[in-house]
Structures are given as structure tokens and as C-alpha cells.
Amino acid sequence: MTLDKFFNPKSVAIIGATEDPNNITSVVITNLIEMGFTGNLVPVNPHHDEVFGLKCYASLLDVKELIDITVISIPSGLVPEVLRQQARCGIKNAIVLSGGFAESGHKGAVLEEEVKTICKEEGIRLIGPNCIGVLDNYSNFSTSFLPWTKVKRPGKGNLGILSQSGSYVVSMMDMLSLEGIGVSKVVSYGNRVDVGESELIEYLTDDESTRVIGIYMESVDDGRRFIKASGNCTRSKHIVALKAGRQDSGIEAAKSHTGAIAGKYEIYKAAFKKSGIVEVYGLAEFMDACKVLSMQKPAKGNKVLVLTNGGGFGVSVSDLCGDTGLDVAPTPESIRDTLSKKFPEYFILKNPIDMTGSSGDEDYGTAMKSALVNNDFFDAAIIIPLMPPHTMTEGVVDIISQMSKESGIPVVICMVSGVYTGEIKKKFEEKGLPVFPTPERCVKAMSVLVERGRMNG
Amino acid sequence: MTLDKFFNPKSVAIIGATEDPNNITSVVITNLIEMGFTGNLVPVNPHHDEVFGLKCYASLLDVKELIDITVISIPSGLVPEVLRQQARCGIKNAIVLSGGFAESGHKGAVLEEEVKTICKEEGIRLIGPNCIGVLDNYSNFSTSFLPWTKVKRPGKGNLGILSQSGSYVVSMMDMLSLEGIGVSKVVSYGNRVDVGESELIEYLTDDESTRVIGIYMESVDDGRRFIKASGNCTRSKHIVALKAGRQDSGIEAAKSHTGAIAGKYEIYKAAFKKSGIVEVYGLAEFMDACKVLSMQKPAKGNKVLVLTNGGGFGVSVSDLCGDTGLDVAPTPESIRDTLSKKFPEYFILKNPIDMTGSSGDEDYGTAMKSALVNNDFFDAAIIIPLMPPHTMTEGVVDIISQMSKESGIPVVICMVSGVYTGEIKKKFEEKGLPVFPTPERCVKAMSVLVERGRMNG
Prior knowledge:
2 copies of one chain form a homodimer. By secondary structure, the first copy, chain A, is an alpha/beta fold. Chain A has helices at residues 4-7, 24-35, 79-88, 106-122, 166-179, 197-205, 223-233, 248-258, 265-274, 283-295, 311-324, 333-342, 361-373, 395-407, 419-430, 439-456; strands at 11-15, 40-44, 50-51, 54-55, 69-72, 93-96, 125-127, 133-136, 141-142, 156-163, 183-188, 212-217, 238-243, 278-280, 304-308, 353-354, 380-384, 411-414, 435-436.
């Protein structure tokens, strides 16, 4: 059985639908309308005849047309009854946004068990409860109940996000929009009574629009299945995981949060390694790893060229490469010979190649051509084009991008974020070159490409 | 002798002045005009009669008026002669922007020695060579030769920046502007033949407009003096240091960059500790440490309240607190009792206090009042107000800010960066509450306040 209907339903019943702006169903519906969702929307609520101009039904049992999925946002105590109704109508899929289940104490936990039993008995597939649900950026379907005015919807891309935490999913969408990183599918599965990350990874492995999967997890649904699904997935795609609940303090918090038994962290660590998953430890690192893997390919080795017009950045990046096991290998004699004929005496040719503040656009082309295109010594390159000197113009974007292509190796850009540099960053990323705003984030991103290269063999 | 004339000169001779946009003196002059520098600008260049409408002199020897300082940007070989001329004119201060000294090989090193000797013999104080020089945001004096259109000038503030690397200074200004962090004075001293960080620290210790000093260093000018000056400074102010050249790869790069012998890193580490300096390892961390110290006071202990409406963030922040030695101490019974009467059953009251996505502005006030204002159990607080729920409005800024003031403890905000949240971030920071865009950066910033508190206490 496939999860397709969760992402691309033809008809959706919104249970509890209302126009009341304080009720989240009103946001779900207005979001869908704003996104241009072309499927059929069917509001269900005994208190209304019409919602946002759509005919509203008193009960699911009154709906004549075929419904692919229900989106349920009603007090938790009423959820079991709705699920039973939808079973009678032959509706096989549900996304339960409502909270008030295991996360809220004993009574909720009992209710959650009931929901689980109904799903099993009736063959209903369910995402949630206590979640944001889904966003499919290609079908324009979403159950997010946060207005797109407050949380900007990210553009289309090849990144899929899976998360136990709703707040993480929302924050990630916000950050991804601002960063200009596109997503394919997003799933917040909350208390995970049925559909969980393992099955979603299996599904996304076959999803053409997804190339990289980023997961925020506090616990795992099924360890064995997770390792098998991930290991299979990472043969052709990439998975990045942020495991929350590593420290005692975090494990305690996770237990309160989603009722998750976070488990022994070391076991997760070993499972990630075994499955070819890149583990990260922070939100920016998560974003950066997803971004670099979605834009560049893994490196074949760890010999990295560092090329810059700012000496201080060369020093910092070299330090950080040392910290993360990247080899700032000395520039081979042959390359130095070639470059010494083309460059002024005061350019520093050992790695880092520091062309000083008096270099310009064309010098980047010259250095990259000799060091990377006509030579296969380096496995990857970190390019740090500082823009302030008047000799540096946006023309450098085309030059670096062209040489990167010709080199055939992964290239990442370090460029601090300012007002003017923000514009240049955009241009680099339009050309497929990921830009990171600090030496530490840039080196970390490169180390992800090297790590993935090593895993692949 | 004081360094005042470097920051607030009444009259400045620009040696090598021209309107040629490819010559950096033209940028220095236009920058100064744009900043509204009110001192006297005196261009010196035998090839021009007038530069930007200012009378231009063939030689320093022709200038009749009193000159406080020269700004020298001419080929390095001509610098010694100009220094001798200025000595004859009784001009006691110079900033040499020109490169072509020790960083460029043997010939340059000899020239640099000559410059050093002249300074000693003639009693000339010199910043540089091979540097960006200074920015004083209160006197509106700067020798930066990067146009403010490409590198936005940061606003006025209490942060002083000292750096051996010019590219770091420039990048930092760009980042600080974007972040809205204000600076007092910035000094890039490059090859440091005379004025170095130790003396600058002594100077800034007495500078009323500076509260926090951030230093990028590859090497130290005078170890003993540095420790003494820093130790003295950190009794009333804060110093944050980023030491580049820690790893073999970085030490090699530093040697090529500023000719700096980076020295044994462990010695620096010990010196920083001894002097009350906060050491950081990356550019973002540098910015964040400077920012948090300029906006909040050190914490008296390590017991941190974590308050949020997003459970996942509570978990992550708890993990990271565990990583950095912050104690997410369980909420005392008395506070839990009080809050359990005011809050719905499903709010989680142990630390982190997770008020879930259904809480709103006022709940933040309620929680902070009970946990922080009417109780002195916690030493500090990390507040994570996620804005997407409709119950969260910008009104939360005033509430959190008011409670922070009443609590008397340091408070930092974690708020991911998106389009809408960017606006709220600004409002928080206008109220003096620093906002950090990820759990990891927020916890790290808080750990700086705890570390400084421990040092002082």
C-alpha cells in the first residue's frame, strides 16, 4: 500500500471546518485555497451549511462523493467516532491535527490507544495525532494550520523533511524560505500512532522529486525497519538526521514532549552510521547538510583546495579543516609553477591559495583552471571570494561557476552575509553553488560531502 | 601617550590622494565625506592640485597647518621617505594602508624593518602597514578603503573590534550591520609594526563608548603585556577572542598570511583563561558572544529556565544545555504549584516549561512572573517564543521584556530567522533582549554569560 493519498489526494474532507479565524481549520482551508490546491475540498461540521463558499456537511455519512482523506481537527475525545464513521464510508486515510492524546497525560494516552486500535481494525492509515501533517510542494496540498503570511512557504525543490516535532517543521519551513532552499514534501507526524519515519523513508526513496531527506527525531518507530529503509535509501539518495534527546536533560524533555522514549543515544549513533545517514547536532547544521547534499555531489577524497582573496579567512578555514579531518594538502609543485608565471609574486600559492585583496574576478578563473581543471589532485574546493575590493564584481559568479563545472569536483562557497553580499549569494546559488555565511558552516558542509563520499566507498 | 589621535584627529593628511576610483585613497576620502567627518582633510600628491574639491599639496613639507595624522596609501618603497618627512613636520601619527611589506617576501620584510626603525627613532606611532586602519563610529573617522555601498557601516554601539586580519574586519562590519549590532571603534592593524592589540586593549579599557572588545588574532604582540592589559580590562569590560592558527594547517596559513608565528595554541588558551577572556572558535560564535555580552549581564550561576511554546525546541535546547554545562534544573515544586493553578493541565511545567502551541502572549508573562520574578531559583532564562500560532502576536515582545527586567537575571531569546520573525527579532533587540536564530547559537550565547559570571564570581 502506498502513501500517495497523503500527498496528492483528489478529494479532502475537513472535519470540524469553520471560518472562525481562531480555529485552525480556517487556516488549513485558506492556505489550501491560497496555494491553488486543485483537489476537491469538502468541509464537514454540523454547525455550518457553508464554509468559505463551500457546501458544508453535517457528517461524513452525508457526503456522497468519494473522499481520499480526512483532515481532522476537533476535540480529541471526538476523534474515535469520526474515524469509525470514515471507516464506514470507506475512507482509508486520515491526518489528525488535534492534540490532547498521549502528550497530555493518562486520559489522552487511553484515547490514543483507542485510535490506534480503530486504525488497525478498520485498515485506516493515519498521520498524527498532535501534528502539522503534510506539505506537498508539487501537488500543492498541505494541512499546515500556520498562515503562510506568518510562516513563509518554501519554494519547490528536492528536499524532503520528516519530523516528530511540529515546531521544528514550522521553523524549518520559515528558514528554508528565507534561505531559498526548495522542498518536495514535508511531514510532521507528531505522536505517530501509525505512519512513521521508516515507512515515509521507504516512500520517499521512490519519490522522484526528493533527493535528500532531512529527519528530526526524538525516537524511532521501528529500529530494524528504519535501518533497512535508510540503508536502502542512502544507496541512491541522502539522509540527514538530527536526533533530539541525546543528553539526560534532553531525554527527559523528549519524554514530556511527545511521550517518546528517546532510548540509548549510542544505539542511534551506530544505526545512523550503519545506514549511511549523516548525523547533525544543530538546526543550522541540519539545514546546511541538507542544502549542500541537495546542490553538490559527494567528494571522492578529503584533499581540499582553499582559494581566497582574504588571508584571514584562509587561516580560519585551514584551522577548521584540521578540526574536521579535511586535508588542506599543499598545492603540487606543477600547479605552483604554472600559477607563479601568471600571478604577481606576492600571491601565496601554497594551500590556501591567497590571492590577497588586490586580486580580482579573473584571478579566480586562472587559479581554478590550473589547480582544478587541468589537474585532478584536489577532491573538492572551498572558494572564499570576498567581495569588498573594487576589483571584485558579480562577474566572479559566472567565472567560479564555469570552472566548478569544468573541474567536476564538489565546490562550496564561503561568503559572509551582508547587504551587498546577499545579492551575490543568490546569484551563486542560482548557478547551483551553495553559499555558507561563516568559515565554520562552510567547512562543516564540505565535511558532509567528504563523509558521504567515504560512505559510498 | 594616548592613541586618541588615531580615532579623533582634527586634521588628516591623505598621502597619495587621488580621485581615481581604482585607487583606494579615493574611497577613503569619499567614505569620510559620506560619514560626515568634520576634521580637516588635506590631500597630498604631487600629481594633483585639487582632489574632490580640496586643495592638494605636492608634499607634506608644503603643508602649513598642523596635521594630527597621516593616512598613507602609496607603493611600499616610498613609505619610509614619507615617514621621514612627517617626522620633520612634527606629525606624530600614521596609518599605513599599503601592503608590500613582510607579508610579501624578503624585500618587503627589509622595508618593514626600516619603517619600524624610523618610527622608533622619530617617535612616530603607526598602525599598519597592510591594514584597513580604523573606524570610530562616534567621531565619524575611518580609513576604510572599502566603499560603504559594498560593506555597510555598522551603527553606533558599545562593541570594539580589533583584528590582525583586514578581511575579517571588513566581513565583521558587514555582518554587524545586517545583524543590527552597533560598534564603537574598529581597528585593523595588519602587520603591526608598532601599535598592537595589547596597547589597544589598554586604550579601550578607558574608552567610555566601549563595553565589549572582540579580537581576531593570529599571534600576540607582547604576551606579558597582553595578559596584564586583558586581565585589567575584564575587571570592568568583556573581551572575546578568536585565535586563528590553532591547527597545523591553520598555523602554516597564518605564517604565509601576516608572517605571524602563531605559537603554541595551548599557551594562548591558558592566557585567555587567566585574563578572563572568552575564547570562541568561529565567526558566528564570535559575533554572538560579543552581542550577548554587549546586551546582557553575566549569570550568577548555571541554573537555566527554558520556556517555550514549541516542545521540539525545548528538547533541543535541553540537549545543548547538557552539552555545555548549563543546568536545566527541574522547576521547584512551589513554582509548579502556582503555575498548575493558572495553566491548563496539558502545559508541561517541569523545566523546560512547554506551554504547547495553544499558548499565547499572556502565558509567557504568567510563566515568567511565577518562575523568575517571584522566585530567585533560576540564574538565567532561555525564552523560545515561536510566533506561528495565531495566539502569538508581537505583543509578546513587551511582555517578555517587562518580565525580564523585573526578574533581574540575564535572558536570551531563541527565534528562528524567517521573514515575519525577522521583524519580531528587531523589536526584541530594540528592548535589549538578544535574539539568536538557532537553539545551538542561543545556548552557546547563554553559556558565555554563565562562563563570564563564573570568572567574575
